[in-house]
Amino acid sequence: MVLMATKSAYASGATGVSNDKIKIGILGDLTGHAAHWGSGNLAGGTLAFEEINAAGGINGRMLEWISVDSESSAPKGIAGFKRLVDQEKVFAVFGPTSSAVGVPLLKTLTASDVPVFASAFSSPLFTNPPAKNIFRSGTLNDADQGRILADYVAGISKKRSVAIMRQSDEYGKTGATNVGNRLKEIGGVKFTEEQFNASDTDFTSQLLRIRDSDADVMVVYGYPAPSAIVMRQAKQLGLPAQIVGSTATASRTYAATVGKEAAGTRAMTMARFLPESDEEAVAKFRKAFEARFPDLARQTRPEGTDQLAYHGAKTLIEGLRLAGRDLTREKLISALEGLKDFETGIAGATTFGPDRREGNRSGYVIEIKDDLSRVVLPQAYSAI
Amino acid sequence: MASTFIQLLLSGAIAGSVYALLAIGLVLIHNGTGVVNFGFGDQLMVGVYFLVFAQQFLGFSLPLAILAAIVISGLLGLAIQGLVMTPLRNRPVLIPIVATIAIGAALREGTRAFMGPNPWPVPFLLSTSPYRIGDISIVPSDLAILGTAVVIMIFLYVFFEFTKYGQAILAACANPTGALIVGIPAGATTTGIWVLSSMLAAIAGIVIAPLTTLTPDIGLIAIKGFAAAVLGGFASLPGAVVGGILLGIIEALSGYYVSSAMKDIVSYAILVAVIVLLPTGLFNRASVRKV
After folding, report:
1. Sorting pLDDT into bands at 50, 70 and 90, what band is B232?
2. How far is B206 from chain A, CA to nearest CA, in Å?
3. Interface with A, mutate which of B45, B118, B245 (most A CBs under 10 A)
4. Residue B52: closest CA among chain A residues belongs to which residue?
């Protein structure tokens, strides 16, 4: 369960802080169905922490970290957090990395005074209502994403008719509900909703129902694997609607997974620059990531999720820096609360506040071109 | 509309042939060894990863990569039989069944650790461009799944019904001691079944994975294979194929004519009704053991 640990003597003062070190716990799903996000969290966090140590540390202290695998399981996540706090005596926790673990973990997190910083998953319940010690930046939560998606599709639907094709679980339900609610607020756009299971392999019945409607835009709110089949089968059935996927469909390998039918489809994303971009900060990150994690590079990574984790870790580092040499948990929380439009060049700007724990509330739209390359469309969409 | 109905039948049959391929593998192992292999879906998954690894990292051509994947999967079956199932052969049947669950989990998490959790593209064996007849779309790559299921079913059916070796395997499974007395080595036939079913898992995976996308969790669709096998009687190969295709068609029709939210409820209600009314499934004959 424990991947890496280093020991050091801790001086009195804040838990997990000594004269020369700050101890951070990294909590994430390294195994199980949500391992994609957890492995990104560990890699992005490790890279950012190693870089700051190489640059001399934070206010005279080096970071050390210990990683615990929550195994895509809520009970394991709760046990892992308690281990980090009670046994490993960490100062702060970077994670968790999935809604399936993060939401059931909330009561345990809020009952502690340990600052918790997440960057990966999208359940809005994690930051709403805001809890004093819980922060998230990088990802776009499903409430905000639903709102932004609705604004976008309402803008491009000439027939003022939208179909929502969503996964049957909490992820799809939350996203689709927020798309629908926002479309009702906008008014004048009718919408239909169809659902599917994440393990389904045929979507003909739903797609034919959508074809029977006059929707000219279809939102697909589901995990990458079923969404890929939905998009391919929609094209094969001759569905004329413009397809727009959730952020889950914004991965680097997604277009290749769908095949040539991916051309012309669009998806939400959080970052202005894709991980394959030549933009300076992203290219520098990608090069460092590939050198540090060749096994992940072999899997066409860094992915967007790795990018967000790196961004999140750098934001946490900025909070630690601003909290000063006389470091306490209260001071870190106060420092993070004071962040406004903090940029890493890797993902969207982060803003927190006394009643705001969701750092990023804006997104962009990706379009897949005929050669299956991806471009980010220039307009930013805000959920505020 | 007639075209909509035909499209639903066609798409349902394609989806059903995915279930059928899974069901055939489960029935094969069950008929030949008496074990329900809960790790079959994961064997299918790892077989496709062998192909991807051979093609993308070893530079194999697609046909060679397919061949390598099938052969290595057969060797994996040999290892499972030799290292796990043989030592457990005299234990209560529940023990080897639990072992298959453990093997499946080990394959899944091992693959996730080595190949990562992200989806991998898998090449289609036939074109994904549809032929259109009116409003009906026919996709060659999808038909490959249906065709593979039918060909494998016919091959195995002929093998078990009309060859001495096939009959020997069934005899050894039904009565290992009796089979041994008449000169049929139960161990060799069981090993043959594990190798054959593991190779079948790879073949099934290679035709299914381009459609479903390849992740370490692709094997979880085996649950539909179980449902199809139960519908067909769990001991009948034609039953597995018909059960799978029937399940796919029921899902497609109920998804369109009832609602997508009710699709699984309707499908599984029918499955439960079949089990209640026909406890041995649509195709299986009730077995009678004479003492």
Report:
1. confident
2. 14
3. B118
4. A299
Stretch B98-116: mean pLDDT: 94
**Are B117 and A168 in contact (CB < 8 Å)?**
no
| H or E element in which residue A164 lies | strand A161-167
Mutate to test the interface with A, among B48, B49, B124, B213 (most CBs of A within 10 A): B213
Residue A257 and residue B121: Cβ atoms within 8 Å? yes
CA distance to A82, A183, B173, B182, B185, per residue, from B177 (Å): 55, 70, 10, 9, 9
In degrees and rounded to multiples of 5, residue A200 shows phi and psi of -65, 155
Give me the residues paired with residue A62 across strands: A21
Measure the CA–CA gap between B221 and B181, rounded to whole angstroms. 40
Of A275, A279, A283, the residue nearest A253 (C-alpha): A275
Q: What is the reported pLDDT for A214?
A: 87
Quote the tokens at residue A299. 């899997």
Q: Which residues of B touch A254 (CB under 8 A)?
A: 119
Cβ A318 vs Cβ A339: under 8 Å? yes
Parts of chain A with a pLDDT under 50: 1-12
Q: Which two tokens stand for residue A345?
A: 């060049």
- Cβ B119–A260 below 8 Å, yes or no? no
Nearest alpha-carbon partner for B154 in B240, B95, B213: B240
Q: Tens digits of per-residue pLDDT, A57-76?
A: 999 999 999 999 999 999 99
- Cβ-Cβ contacts under 8 Å between A and B: the total is 116
Helix A204-212 to helix B237-257 angle (10° resolution) is 20
For residue B153, the model assigns a pLDDT of 85
- Chain A closest-CA separation from residue B90 CA (Å): 33
Residue A13, pLDDT score: 61
Q: What is the dihedral of CA B129, B131, B136, B141, to 10 degrees?
A: -50
- In this model, does residue B284 exceed pLDDT 80? no
Instruction: Decide if pLDDT at B187 tops 70.
Output: yes
In chain B, whose CA is at the least distance from the CA of A210? B256
Q: Which of B112, B117, B260 sits opposite A205 (nearest CB)?
A: B260
Q: Is residue B135 helix, strand or coil?
A: coil
